[in-house]
Design goal:
The chain is an alpha+beta fold. The protein contains four helices and twelve strands, in the order H-E-E-H-E-E-E-E-E-E-E-H-E-E-E-H. Helix 1 (2-31) runs antiparallel to helix 4 (263-322). It is elongated, with a radius of gyration of 34 Å. The two termini are 47 Å apart.
Length: 342
């Protein structure tokens, strides 16, 4: 029985030892994916900011500028791209809506971002664009890959429509989570004028006024290293309208402020990421290491039972070999009786 039990334990030990790396290196890349139907809204604010008044072309101080970023998973288009490329992709249609203190629109910029559901690398299909203009992204946007590494990443900037490194600046503690902090500074760059502007203005009208739009920002992200999801984001954002061909003329500040996620959206994002990171840890750490430890324990128990089984068989063989010669006899040649003879 001991030998049979040791063989069963050995089989389970091998099973769990093989299952551990399979979970990490085979199941994880196929199960950990960004949902294709995700919908999310994040609200950011810049308090005591500067904003252009397009009716006078003069900057003015305002109490608050609100930026609403809406993200919607386009499942139909994702299915079409998957059929075309054979890759499991996600298509995000996003809208960045900037509003002044009265809630009136300052600008709105739509985007389409197509990327691999697991690696988050861009997929150049499905009509990726920024504000209606086709783009070809290099690097990440919105989200880092699962299991973020302590290194720089290429990050796509929708204003310049180019990619540049976003730098890892260390590990920090944020709302109870250990997160990676990243920074990117975009130098002053001439950028396109948004298609949607107040007062019915168009990019062509801005060009006819002899103005062009310039932009710089310092971008900061606090990223959960397990899921790759940012739990907080900020920008020190500046925009200017400059006079085309007249560098001596004073630029008009179009937007200047420190943009931060609204506290209630920070709390909800942290709660969402905390729940998601448990699922990733289950596939990458908890179950693989647990199964590996369980397999090692079962192997040790199997070896103990096998050793005991061999000792028992050896003792039985010794008794059979001496034919009972080592038994202790009593006088008279019989087995001892209860009590003494009379």
């Amino acid at each position: 029985m001991r030998r049979r039990a040791s063989l069963v334990l050995l089989a389970f030990a091998v099973f769990f030892a093989v299952l551990a790396p399979l979970l990490r290196w085979y199941a994880f890349p196929r199960l950990a994916k960004v949902p294709a139907d995700r919908y999310q809204t994040v609200v950011l604010e810049a308090k005591d900011a500067t904003l252009i008044d397009y009716s006078t072309l003069e900057p003015r101080k305002v109490s608050r500028i609100t930026m609403v970023e809406t993200l919607r998973g386009n499942t139909e288009r994702a299915r079409e791209v998957r059929d075309e490329t054979g890759r499991d992709v996600v298509v995000w249609d996003t809208l960045t809506f900037v509003a002044g203190p009265d809630g009136a629109m300052v600008s709105k910029i739509p985007e389409r971002y197509v990327f691999d559901a697991h690696s988050q690398q861009p997929v150049h299909e499905g009509g990726e664009h920024v504000d209606g203009a086709p783009v070809r992204r290099d690097g990440i946007e919105f989200k880092w890959p699962f299991l973020v590494r302590k290194r720089d990443y290429q990050y796509f900037d929708m204003q310049t429509r180019t990619s540049a490194p976003i730098h890892y600046r260390g590990t920090r503690r944020f709302h109870g989570l250990d997160v990676y902090y990243f920074e990117q500074t975009v130098p002053w760059t001439r950028v396109p004028v948004p298609q949607a502007l107040p007062l019915g203005l168009t990019p062509e009208a801005i060009r006819q006024l002899g103005l062009e739009r310039w932009y710089t920002t310092k971008r900061m992200f606090w990223v959960d290293p397990t899921t790759g999801a940012p739990v907080n984001g900020e920008e020190i954002h500046q925009e200017e309208m400059r006079w085309t061909g007249h560098p001596e003329k004073k630029p008009i500040t179009a937007f200047a402020g420190h943009v931060k996620m609204r506290p209630d959206y920070v709390d909800s994002t942290v709660a969402l990421v905390t729940s998601q990171r448990r699922l990733v840890l289950l596939l990458t750490s908890w179950l693989p290491w647990g199964f590996l430890g369980l397999g090692g324990g079962l192997l040790a128990l199997s070896l103990v039972l096998e050793a005991r089984s061999r000792r028992a068989r050896a003792q039985t063989a010794d008794v059979s070999h001496d034919g009972g010669k080592n038994r202790t006899a009593t006088p008279g040649g019989g087995w001892p009786l209860r009590g003494d003879p009379p």
